[in-house]
Amino acid sequence: MHEGRYRKNTPELQLAAKELRRAMTDAEQVLWKALRGRGVGGVRFRRQHPVGRFVLDFYCATAKLCIELDGDIHDEQVDRDEARSEALAAGGYRVLRFRNEEVLHSLPDVLARIAAALH
């Protein structure tokens, strides 16, 4: 394992990621349409990608950038989300969080913040 790498995962986690790709939320679908095919910053993103014990909504390996979309349920799990972000940061990953509403109603702003984080 490389230093700063937090990649090991289980077959169960890989299966969960596959299921999450099949059941993407509306916001995830909108953002994926913008990110796929090197659509932002000329870099490749993966969707519902397992890293360690987590499945990340979107992940750019080149920049070690994780993008998480938060729906209403995340209002009830703020501490859990913070702990997740801290664990990823300890592995050398950067995490950007957006509300689903931001993606659905202000996509250009979301994409600009992602592009800025890539550079």
TrEMBL record:
<dbReference type="InterPro" id="IPR007569">
    <property type="entry name" value="DUF559"/>
</dbReference>
<dbReference type="InterPro" id="IPR047216">
    <property type="entry name" value="Endonuclease_DUF559_bact"/>
</dbReference>
<protein>
    <recommendedName>
        <fullName>DUF559 domain-containing protein</fullName>
    </recommendedName>
</protein>
<dbReference type="InterPro" id="IPR011335">
    <property type="entry name" value="Restrct_endonuc-II-like"/>
</dbReference>
<dbReference type="Pfam" id="PF04480">
    <property type="entry name" value="DUF559"/>
</dbReference>
<feature type="domain" description="DUF559">
    <location>
        <begin position="14"/>
        <end position="118"/>
    </location>
</feature>
